[in-house]
# Entry
Amino acid sequence: MPATNAPTFESLKLLSGQALQLEFEGYDSNRDRSQLVGYYRGRTIIISTPTKQGVAMSVKPKTSVRVRLFVNQINGACAFESRVQHVSVLPFPHLHLTMPEQLFIGEVRKSIRAKAHIITSVVLVLGGQRKSVPSVIDDLSINGARLFCQKLPTELNAEIDIVFKIAVSDIERIMRIKAIVRSIQFNEAKDSHFYGLQFVNVSDSDRITLHAFVLSQLHIG
# Structure
């Protein structure tokens, strides 16, 4: 049983459409995408059935499942263990899950970084003209990134624009973010420069997308 004052699923106050990641016991190790449909207090959680190539997955009742999500209300990641209670195909494919006995909550701190390989364009203004330089982000956090590329015509504390694409819950988002160059290092083995960036003036929608991407790389509980 959860400890006194421990957070409950109901206390998260989630809305319909909340993005979820599922790991079914006995299925492949990939995390499947789902959405919260609703819940009946103390009884069941209703979620959309994940799809594979547009077809609803075949999931058996009593299958154990681990659920992961990012909760804006607590600015943190959440995970819990559950079990499939009921499988339905009408009026659309959906699953009923048991209410979790315990939630695992993890705050997403500034220092948590997601390993990545994201093709990126660095946009600078040179001689009054905008120039785009290809680069790669090799790790990404909510508040910054590290990218590597050939030497950029920039310096410490300079402001640059970066443009990159990330996928969250199978939805691709193009991110256009301003950043300040906080560190520059030369990697002789790769004959490339590494740039540590601090994001500035990030919009609320982009921050939520970054939160969700970092969550997809976390392992909680």
About this structure: DSSP finds one helix and 15 strands in the chain.
